[in-house]
Amino acid sequence: MTPDLGQIYDSECAFVWRTLRRLGVADADLPDAVHDVFDVAFRKWQEYDSARPLRAWLFGIARRVAASTRRKRNQQIPTERSQAVGRGASPESEVAARELLLQLLETVDEDQRVAFMLHDLEGFSGAEIAEMLEVPRGTVYSRIRLARKQLAAQVRRLRLRRAV
User: Fold this and answer.
1) Residue burial 83-100, b: 16+ Cβ < 10 Å; e: rest
2) Where in the chain is the domain with CATH 1.10.10.10?
3) Does the domain spanning 92-164 belong to CATH 1.10.10.10?
4) CATH 1.10.1740.10 intervals, the chain
């Protein structure tokens, strides 16, 4: 069966973009990385098992592309980004909050970050994540718990720094 590649791209591009960003791909590299994910997906379409959710398959490709992109650039998300998170709901404060979350996510172990991101940010169930990552469901929940614990500790540290 020949897929409607344009339709797949249109329906999944935002998911792939968010996934790559949350996996640490720099803003400047996102357009190329998104292109790379879909390039790989379309070239390997014959290998896609339609019994699996499409997003799970794309996520696996995105994870490998993100790792490759980070390796090529040999970079981390810059630490000198705005860390001001306002209490209002202004667009600037929302952007700052997102940037801070991305920065904090970079401090979390990659396996834990991926499980947290898929569960808490993308809304996948533990069973779906376990299938995507090919790990036991208990491992998924353990990784999510550890990521949350580490993120909470980072937030406490930030609050203490700001209180001084």
Assistant:
1) eebeeeeeeeeeebeebb
2) 92-164
3) yes
4) 1-77
164 vs 127: CA distance, rounded Å: 43
> What tens digit of pLDDT does each residue of 142-151 get?
999 999 999 8
Residue 62 and residue 24 in contact, taking contact as beta carbons nearer than 8 Å: no
Considering the domain 1-77, what is its CATH architecture?
Answer: Orthogonal Bundle (1.10)
Task: State the pTM of this model.
Answer: 0.63
pLDDT band at 13 (very low <50, low <70, confident <90, very high): very high
Token code pair at residue 2: 């020949």
Of the chain, the percentage scoring pLDDT greater than 70 comes to 87
Average pLDDT of the chain? 83
Annotate 15-68 with three-state secondary structure.
HHHHHHHHCCCCHHHHHHHHHHHHHHHHHCHHHCCCCCCHHHHHHHHHHHHHHH
For residue 108, what is the DSSP state? S
Tell me which amino acid residue 147 is: A
